[in-house]
Amino acid sequence: MTASGTGDGQTADRAANGEPEERQRYRELLEELRTVLPGVQVLFAFLLTAPFSQRFNELDEFGRDLYGVALMGTALAAIILLSPASYHRIAPRRERAGRLRTAIRLMVAGMLVLASSMVIAVLTVIRFIFGPGVGIAVTTGLAAVVLMLWYIVPLLRRLNILGDDAAGFRTEER
What we know:
flat; mainly alpha
């Protein structure tokens, strides 16, 4: 990842070639979505097939409720994360900056719903296998890690509270 936070190392080259910043950011957003969506699809597929497993009927009512929330949350995350593609195609072309802002907000919201669904799905499974106490402990830790890595660290970097070398890596422009 470059110091500019783009991750592809080509932003400076594209900017030098006169490509507008919004177009660059859109391409970066699309690449990020391409990495997230397969994981959402796999989780969704697993959740869709789980009720057909033999042991699914052993879940108590609360476990089935958790499962339902995880399933619906994953479906909602997929819808939100796929929305920027539709929005990009349908919204007026002249509103590129507005489309980009909306797409970024949708991705952040979709990742939040996805994180919640993942944590709830893990809670459902861990609670079923090891009991409620272990389930709550494990998923609380998992939620803290997701919150830290997906939201807190990036926000601290955005506010320039963490330096370039916060993770022990030097980030230099190429």
